[in-house]
Write a structure and sequence with these properties.
The protein is mainly alpha-helical. It contains two helices and no strands. The longest helix has 28 residues.
Length: 51
């Protein structure tokens, strides 16, 4: 019975991973890479006190 539970957990993990990959691809196709990168740079600059 435990083996069946582990198989179901693996399917859930795979499904979540595929949804995550699909959302990443969707964001890339919309051109959000530069926006996210620019925001990350600003946050890092503020954290270390440069910006």
């Amino acid at each position: 019975m435990k083996k069946h539970f582990l198989i179901e957990k693996n399917y859930l993990a795979i499904a979540v991973m595929l949804v995550g990959i699909a959302l990443i691809v969707y964001g890339i196709s919309r051109g959000q890479v530069t926006s996210v990168f620019n925001k990350a740079v600003r946050v890092c600059m503020e954290c270390i006190g440069i910006g």
